[in-house]
Amino acid sequence: xxxQKVEANVLLLGAESVGKSALTVRFLTxxxxxxxxxxESIYSHTDRVEGRxxxxxxxxxxxxxxxxxxxxxSDRQLQWADGFILVYSICDRASFNVVRQxxxxxxxxxxxxxxxxxxxxxxxxxxLQHRRTVSSEEGRLLALSTDCGFFEISVAETYxxxxxxxxxxxxxxxxxxxxx
Length: 180
Ligand code: GDP
Ligand code: MG
Description:
Elements: E1 6-14, H1 20-29, E2 41-49, E3 52-60, H2 75-80, E4 83-89, H3 93-110, E5 119-124, H4 136-146, E6 149-152, H5 160-179
This protein binds guanosine-5'-diphosphate (GDP) and magnesium ion.
């Protein structure tokens, strides 16, 4: 029925310091604090989308420390996630390259279970225009060529855009489920 409960497991990926924790906390509390610890955690957050209660489980991942290559995604993470938010900073080209690798990794896994892994690419820190090293075009092109959603946002400046990212991913997750 219309009150059916919907759950969505969202995995946040990307290089260090791009704003994954800031994005998570912004969505959970609507606030931007400034500094975030290095805690790996799965948060639950209920949000109302078009009159429906949606339970988001958000896995704010940490970058692998020693032993594993940067950008590594574990099989466990791939299996857990219904959808992915890949974050880079528009002032950090290396972080853009990490996202590029991670999209590939997800899509390789995707080819084994079709339609199961929607991805949104997020270019964060748009408020730092003067330090930009990744153009909007590059971000948009990567998303287009890999069939992902794309947003450029500033977690520091706005809550609304952050909410849009999660709602858009939710739409994609629902589409993917409908296709199964
Ligand atoms: P994580 O390592 O990906 O979880 O990154 P954090 O969420 O810890 O953020 C790293 C740093 O970037 C922190 O100092 C944040 O305050 C800062 N930060 C996050 N989002 C933004 C943003 O939109 N604009 C600016 N200027 N700084 C941001
Ligand atoms: Mg973090």
